[in-house]
Amino acid sequence: MTSTDVARETGLSRATVSFVLNDTPNQSIPQATRQRVLEAAARLGYTPYAPARTLRSGRSDLIVCELPDWPQSPTMAEFVDRAGEVLAEAGYTLVTHVHTDRPGGLGRLCAALAPAAVFGMRPFPRRMSRPCAGPA
């Protein structure tokens, strides 16, 4: 479902629906109209289009966890599962990435995903202390 579907369902303009769904400030939209949009969005199962949100904000709602390249124990799997749950409650999505010795792997991933944060299970090399921020 897209915001266009919500606009069609409510009989409102795409601009009005967009203002409501993005909670755009300084828009004088009646509370009843806002409620109508939000109810239609919920009923239709609308979710924001992630690439557009990333483009607008300059970052995604993804958090990258770099895992070491070795067999993962049940404890590590439980840690990753719990981290994913906690991050989801805060509005983020956890993405795991297995470290390899190939140059630029994490950097390419960061360029493609524009994550909000990156953390690892071992220290990043000094030259990569800011793995997704470009050259330090």
Summarize the structure.
By secondary structure, this protein is of the alpha/beta class. The chain contains six helices and three strands, in the order ααααβαβαβ.
Rounded to the nearest angstrom, the distance between the terminal CA atoms is 41 Å
Q: Kindly estimate the percentage of residues that lie in beta strands according to DSSP.
A: 5-15%
What kind of assembly state do the chains in view correspond to? single chain
> How does the major sheet shape up?
3 strands, parallel
Spatial shape: elongated
Total number of beta strands: 3
Structure description:
This protein is of the alpha/beta class. The chain is 46% helix and 12% strand. It has a three-stranded parallel beta sheet, with helices on both faces. β1 (62-67), α5 and β2 (93-98) form a beta-alpha-beta unit. The radius of gyration is 20 Å and the shape is elongated.
Helices and strands, with pairings:
Blueprint: H1 3-10, H2 14-21, H3 31-44, H4 50-57, E1 62-67, H5 74-89, E2 93-98, H6 105-113, E3 117-120
Parallel strand pairs: 1-2, 1-3
Helix pairs in contact: 1-2, 1-3
Question: Keyphrases for this structure?
Answer:
alpha/beta; 12% strand; 136 residues; three-stranded parallel beta sheet; elongated; 6 helices
